[in-house]
Amino acid sequence: MEDTTKTKTVANNEEIARAAVDEASEKLGSDIVLLETEGISSFADYFVIISGETDRHLESMAEDISRRSRKMGVHVTHREGSGKGGWLLIDFTGVVVHLFTRDQREHYGLEDLWTRATEIVRVQ
User: Fold this and answer.
1) What is the pTM assigned to this prediction?
2) Which of 5, 30, 45, 93 has the most C-beta neighbours closer than 10 Å?
3) Nearest residue to 58 via CA among 34, 77, 30, 35
4) How many CB atoms lie under 10 A from the CB of residue 39?
5) Distance CA 77, CA 92 (A)
6) Within 13 Å and on the Cβ side, how many CA atoms surround 14?
7) Are 27 and 67 in contact, with CB atoms under 8 Å apart?
8) C-alpha pair distances (Å), 47 with each of 9, 24, 39
9) NCBIfam families per the record (predicted)?
10) CA max distance for the chain
11) What distance in Å separates the CA atoms of residue 117 and residue 34, rounded to the nearest whole number?
């Protein structure tokens, strides 16, 4: 007898990262970068780095990215920071999304810290 039950598949890390890029782009995030850190980082295969205009913009993008991931069967493992602080981190275990105001992004300089990572996508 054939099993006709549908199993829900969970998205892989690259799909989650690309969905975060797409969602941020749709919500008018700027200078969006997807870095592959597999083999370089022990805690994430992908980093997504996004700039936003205001604290509310960062919070809104974070919520939209989290909502989209839930629809993909993936839940946030950890969230840190706040829009008011100019920096938010969303951890999906294997994919880390960083949302910054422009000033905070420049201050932290993540792209400079992860120069060995492979840039997969950049959306201006």
Assistant:
1) 0.89
2) 45
3) 30
4) 10
5) 5
6) 6
7) no
8) 22, 13, 13
9) rsfS_iojap_ybeB
10) 61
11) 10
List pLDDT tens digits, range 37-47: 998 999 999 99
Tokens of 20: 């975060």
Strand ordering across the sheet containing 30-36: 78-82, 87-91, 94-101, 44-52, 30-36, 118-123
Distance CA 29, CA 39 (A): 28
pLDDT in tens, 23-38: 999 999 999 999 999 9
Extract the tokens encoding 84. 């008011």
Both tokens of residue 27?
A: 């919500």
